[in-house]
């Protein structure tokens, strides 16, 4: 009976969300060039025309455009089919999270998770947008979940590496998830080694190698393409250059001068012709800007993202606060604190901090509510697991 209630609740949320998305598709999302959709559709057409399945436009990654290739055709009908595919990805997102989390644990927590995931304003519009954000959110969430579980059973890192590789094929930000995991697992391995706990230290090493190897295997087609075309496996104009600009106009001006979306030879020749001080890079940015300017940039991004998050998701924090108080009452403060001290939780907190800080930094270049949803979904699932028992508690700690 409880399973039927959970299924009905999640199904109702999804049904209402899809109805709202259908309305957004008719009224607001009618321009195929809005919200980066034109660039994604153009990349899909380029993949179809060239036959190269894992090509990029030096910014957007190929997984989502690749899914659109069978649906593409000239004109409005092709755009509508792509929108329906985007909505199907959204439905898959909710189905996977229900299967993994929503059908387990207390009913009240399951309802909380469904509401937290479905109610953010702007989500119906996001479901209709032909962009990779929801696909990335799902894959990145799965990568985080399995990587967090690998702190107690290293074999979960293999699945974590697979999903991190898929998340990277969807958006470059997927690589950041692996980077943070490698840093946290390395620290955890060193801690266990200092304590002379050799078996956990060995498991940490296995997790590091397993996640890295599986990530490399899954992401290898894109890594090879980047190396051959741009001369760097992890080439991306956003991470390589635009992060160090002061505005989007500066990004566009640099792109014109540097030919940053061309192949390696043309791009390198253009860079050599430029004044080295005009090249967007971390070295030039920190040379040319004071600590005060850097702090102000982060503060401005924090205000912009924080205000948008509260205005659009204030209900989430109020609901979350109620459940945290309930958890503290039922579990006791010491038990709740112990769960926060686990390495998996510390990895999760590190990820949230780095991801949100990167959004604050990037807000000077571009800001959108859709950038916040991957973090929102991770927080919702993370708190659900913490209130339930914690992502690392599926297995007993290794001694």
Question: How does this model look, in words?
Answer:
The protein starts with a helix and ends in an 11-residue tail after the last helix. The chain has 399 residues and is mainly alpha-helical. Helix 15 (291-331) crosses helix 16 (333-340). The longest helix is centred in the last third of the chain and has 41 residues, at 291-331. 74% of the residues lie in helices and 0% in strands.
Question: What is this structure's SSE topology?
Answer:
Blueprint: H1 2-27, H2 37-50, H3 63-68, H4 76-102, H5 107-118, H6 123-128, H7 133-149, H8 156-170, H9 174-194, H10 198-230, H11 237-240, H12 248-258, H13 264-273, H14 282-288, H15 291-331, H16 333-340, H17 343-362, H18 373-388
Low-confidence stretches: 390-399
Q: Which series of helices and strands comes N to C? A: HHHHHHHHHHHHHHHHHH
What percentage of the residues does DSSP assign to strands (E)?
Answer: under 5%
Helical segment tally?
18
Query: Could you say which structural class the secondary elements and strand pairing correspond to?
Result: mainly alpha
User: How many angstroms does the end-to-end distance come to?
Assistant: 39 Å
Largest sheet: none
Radius of gyration: 22 Å
What's the number of domains?
1
Overall pLDDT confidence: 87
Summarize the model shown.
This protein has 399 residues and is mainly alpha-helical. It has 18 helices and no strands. The protein has one domain.
């Amino acid at each position: 009976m409880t399973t039927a209630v959970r299924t009905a609740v999640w199904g109702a949320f999804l049904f209402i969300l899809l109805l709202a998305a259908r309305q957004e598709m008719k009224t607001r999302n009618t321009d195929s060039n809005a919200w980066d959709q034109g660039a994604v559709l153009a990349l899909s057409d380029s993949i179809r025309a060239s036959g190269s399945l894992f090509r990029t436009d030096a910014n957007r990654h190929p997984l989502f455009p690749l899914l659109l290739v069978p649906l593409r055709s000239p004109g409005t009908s092709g755009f509508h089919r792509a929108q329906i595919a985007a909505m199907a990805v959204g439905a898959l997102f909710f189905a996977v999270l229900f299967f993994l989390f929503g059908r387990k644990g207390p009913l009240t927590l399951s309802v909380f998770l469904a509401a937290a995931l479905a109610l953010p304003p702007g989500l119906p519009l996001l479901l209709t947008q032909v962009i990779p954000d929801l696909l990335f959110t799902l894959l990145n969430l799965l990568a985080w979940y399995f990587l967090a579980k690998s702190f107690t059973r290293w074999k979960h890192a293999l699945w974590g590496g697979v999903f991190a590789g898929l998340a990277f094929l969807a958006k470059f930000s997927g690589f950041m998830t692996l980077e943070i995991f490698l840093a946290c697992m390395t620290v955890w391995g060193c801690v266990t080694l200092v304590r002379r706990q050799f078996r956990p230290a060995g498991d940490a090493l296995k997790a590091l190698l397993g996640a890295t190897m599986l990530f490399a295997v899954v992401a290898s087609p894109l890594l090879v393409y980047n190396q051959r075309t741009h001369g760097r496996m992890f080439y991306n104009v956003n991470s390589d250059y635009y992060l160090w600009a002061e505005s989007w106009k500066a990004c566009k001006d640099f792109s014109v001068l540097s030919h940053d979306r061309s192949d390696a030879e043309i791009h390198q020749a253009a860079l050599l012709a430029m004044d080295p001080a005009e090249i967007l890079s971390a070295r030039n940015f920190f040379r040319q800007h004071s600590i005060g300017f850097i702090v102000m940039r982060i503060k401005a991004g924090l205000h912009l993202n924080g205000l948008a998050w509260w205005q659009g998701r204030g209900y989430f924090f109020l609901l979350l606060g109620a459940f945290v108080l309930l958890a503290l009452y039922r579990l006791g403060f010491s038990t709740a604190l112990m769960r926060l001290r686990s390495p998996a939780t510390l990895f999760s907190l590190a990820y949230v901090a780095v991801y949100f800080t990167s959004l604050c930094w990037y807000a000077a270049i571009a800001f959108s509510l859709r950038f916040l949803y991957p973090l929102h979904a991770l927080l919702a699932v993370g708190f659900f697991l913490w209130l339930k028992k914690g992502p690392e508690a599926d297995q007993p700690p290794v001694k």
